[in-house]
Design goal:
With 143 residues, the protein is α+β, with helices and mostly antiparallel strands. It is 34% helix and 14% strand. It folds into 2 domains: 63 residues, no CATH class; 63 residues, no CATH class. 24% of the residues are buried. The chain binds iron/sulfur cluster.
Length: 143
């Protein structure tokens, strides 16, 4: 049987993506944004906060790490007209939209694109880069 890495995929020629910072994926409904323990320091540093204060004010325990708190409307507390931690955002956000569930078919990708205006814009991610994101996101799910 062929592995996912060797099969012909609809994204063999790559896919365009560039986040438009619209907030649609991180506001408006409750969700979890997993932050691994080894991701905490870089995010805290980028906000100019001591790690303890960052954890107490903006995170809650989730699995072996944390998730980012939201307001009552389900808005990520680190979204303010744009992601406040974009360069150091956690794996879950960094690998979006190249998740297996979005790439399992062309149809799934089109459905995802209808929710995310960044899809189809910006630089092309190569097939290998897409597969690397998919693997990295998957490895995070197992933690
Ligand atoms: S929905 Fe897409 S374009 Fe909008 S913030 Fe999320 S990733 Fe960026």
């Amino acid at each position: 049987m062929q592995s996912r890495d060797s099969c012909a995929c609809f994204f063999d020629r790559g896919l365009r993506f560039e986040c438009q910072q619209c907030g649609r994926c991180c506001t408006g409904e409750p969700g979890t944004v997993y932050v691994a323990p080894d991701e905490v320091k870089a995010i805290a540093d980028s906000l100019g906060l001591p790690e303890e204060a960052f954890i107490a004010d903006l995170l809650y325990p989730f699995r072996d790490g944390y998730s980012i708190k939201e307001d009552k409307q389900g808005n990520c507390l680190l979204y303010a007209g744009g992601c406040r931690i974009y360069p150091v955002r956690p794996r879950q956000c960094r690998t979006w939209p190249f998740w297996f569930k979005n790439l399992r078919s062309r149809y799934a990708w089109k459905q995802t694109a209808s929710q995310c205006p960044g899809i189809g814009k910006g630089p092309v991610y190569t097939r290998d880069e897409i597969l690397a994101c998919m693997r990295e996101h998957g490895s995070g799910l197992k933690t």
